[in-house]
């Protein structure tokens, strides 16, 4: 049954309630990004207050990544099967409670547990929220506009989190943990009123319990292994055995999915070249950026002696550029298509990273740092919404949650893997006598790796620029204006690989 939301969207009308729905979903995405960026600056204060070691502090970050990256596949398919609205609202409520718990606890293990629960809940809100958008707004101009606004909220949340964390930590690190709770509760109350009713998938072939167990176990073990590898050693027996176990679990998962009547992931969706490019592009995009932010934060605070707030403001131009482009990206995607925008975006990202290789210990911000931030901000504005649009276009409504979960898994796993690789490269080149220049020199190989990851993303996405077959012209008799617009759009959209 078609909801009023879907009817309004299909007719090209953005009603106040439709705007409200999008704002609720944007609030959840904003919170996810805000929470990730805020905790990093607060870690030294947390460690001092609770008496935590460096290895324990790492798990305040890693615990969130473990819950988020490990359960995204399950979260996406659960939204398809149990109802996107229901899954989104329950998970958002859990996120609010976990935020409250994280700000009140007085022990490291409880804080880590609260972070894991928050990551787990985000693993359900992220794919559910994205699939609500893609099933409410029809493919084409309207969906592109909605997704550009949605993904911009993620970048805005990340940038604001950096600034807010610098301000709030000055008062108390607990405020950085508590801040998401009231925002999540407001979004939850609004969501109960505004989000469209969704039904469970009625014709599914049962629940893929073996696939859910194997998929979740393999993702959890993969993220855990990658996060721990820099500490225990990439060539250690523990790391190698863990990777072997991941390979066995993934092999068993694929075998189960190929035979399951209702798979957690329908493997046929990965036969699309556009889908493969979106997933690999997401890994390269987020993996390179997380590694860049990690090294640049160390450079600014440890070597230049900048404060947390000063560092956050240095990153701010990139976030501002993304936010200002929000209302324009939908029209830009309509005009140029995702393959071109992804290629241009990754090219800007490569240049931005490469320019940063020349920094020294006495940089002039406007000359040495700002150009990279602006180029990377422009790249994020082009790449992030284009990845979401390309991954979800041409996918049936009943599989939108699955594809959304797969895309978010690529983002998180890419971030975890490439950050661990960059950390390992920097550690391997660390000087015995830690002079400032020596430390900076040890960062450069890491920046080279980051640039290389972006180059790989550029090469992957550029393959989508080859001559593409287009659909033949369609004559629509007695069509309404919205239908004619949809038909015209379908003529411009290339046939999926």
UniProtKB/TrEMBL annotation:
Main subcellular location: membrane
Transmembrane domains' residue ranges: 21-44, 56-75, 87-105, 117-137, 149-169, 175-195, 207-227, 239-257, 278-300, 306-327, 339-358, 364-384, 405-426, 446-465
Major facilitator superfamily (MFS) profile domain boundaries: 21-469
Domain of life: Bacteria
Localization per record: Cell membrane
Record's keyword terms, sorted: Antibiotic resistance, Cell membrane, Membrane, Transmembrane, Transmembrane helix, Transport
Biased composition (Basic and acidic residues): 488-497
Gene3D superfamilies in alphabetical order: MFS general substrate transporter like domains, Multidrug resistance protein D
InterPro entries: MFS, MFS_dom, MFS_trans_sf, Sugar_transporter_CS
Membrane association type: Multi-pass membrane protein
Region annotation Disordered: where it falls in the sequence: 478-497
PANTHER family according to UniProt: BLR6921 PROTEIN (PTHR42718:SF46), MAJOR FACILITATOR SUPERFAMILY MULTIDRUG TRANSPORTER MFSC (PTHR42718)
Protein name: MFS transporter
Originating species: Streptomyces broussonetiae
């Amino acid at each position: 049954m078609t909801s009023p939301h879907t009817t309004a969207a299909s007719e090209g009308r953005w009603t106040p309630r439709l705007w409200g729905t999008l704002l609720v979903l944007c609030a959840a995405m904003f919170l996810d990004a805000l929470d990730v960026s805020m905790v990093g600056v607060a870690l030294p204060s947390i460690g001092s207050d609770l008496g935590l070691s460096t290895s324990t502090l790492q798990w305040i970050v890693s615990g969130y990544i473990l819950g988020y990256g490990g359960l995204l596949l399950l979260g996406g398919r659960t939204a398809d099967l149990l109802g996107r609205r229901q899954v989104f609202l329950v998970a958002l409520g859990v996120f609010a409670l976990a935020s409250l718990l994280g700000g009140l606890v007085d022990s490291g293990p409880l804080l880590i547990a609260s972070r894991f629960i928050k990551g787990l809940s985000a693993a359900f809100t992220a794919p559910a929220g994205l699939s609500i958008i893609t099933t409410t707004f029809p493919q084409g101009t309207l969906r592109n506009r909605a997704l550009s606004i949605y993904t911009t909220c993620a970048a805005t949340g990340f940038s604001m989190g950096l600034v807010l964390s610098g301000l709030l930590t000055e008062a108390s690190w607990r405020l950085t943990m508590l801040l998401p709770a009231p925002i999540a509760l407001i979004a939850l109350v609004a969501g109960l009123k505004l989000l469209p009713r969704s039904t469970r998938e009625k014709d599914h072939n049962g629940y893929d319990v073996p696939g859910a167990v194997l998929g979740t176990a393999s993702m959890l073990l993969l993220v855990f292994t990658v996060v721990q590898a820099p500490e225990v050693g990439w060539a250690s027996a523990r790391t190698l055995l863990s990777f072997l176990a991941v390979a066995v679990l993934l092999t068993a998962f694929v075998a189960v999915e190929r035979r399951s009547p209702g798979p957690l992931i329908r493997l046929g969706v990965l036969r699309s070249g556009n889908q493969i490019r979106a997933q690999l592009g997401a890994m390269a995009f987020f993996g390179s950026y997380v590694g860049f932010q990690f090294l640049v934060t160390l450079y600014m605070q440890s070597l230049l002696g900048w404060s947390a707030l000063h560092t956050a403001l240095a990153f701010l131009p990139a976030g501002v550029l993304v936010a200002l482009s929000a209302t324009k990206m939908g029209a830009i995607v309509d005009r140029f298509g995702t393959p071109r925008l992804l290629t241009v975006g990754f090219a800007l990202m490569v240049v931005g990273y490469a320019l940063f290789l020349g920094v020294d210990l006495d940089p002039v911000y406007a000359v040495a740092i700002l150009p990279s931030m602006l180029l990377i901000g422009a790249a994020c504005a082009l790449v992030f919404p284009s990845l979401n649009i390309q991954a979800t276009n041409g996918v049936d409504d009943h599989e939108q949650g699955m594809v959304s979960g797969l895309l978010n898994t690529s983002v998180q796993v890419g971030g975890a893997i490439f950050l661990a690789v960059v950390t390992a490269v920097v550690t391997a080149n660390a000087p015995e006598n830690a002079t400032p220049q020596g430390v900076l020199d040890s960062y450069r190989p890491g920046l080279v790796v980051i640039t290389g990851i972006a180059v790989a993303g550029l090469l992957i996405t550029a393959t989508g620029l080859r001559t593409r077959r287009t659909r033949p012209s369609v004559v629509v008799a007695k069509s309404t204006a919205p239908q004619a617009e949809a038909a015209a759009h379908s003529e411009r959209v290339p046939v999926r690989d």
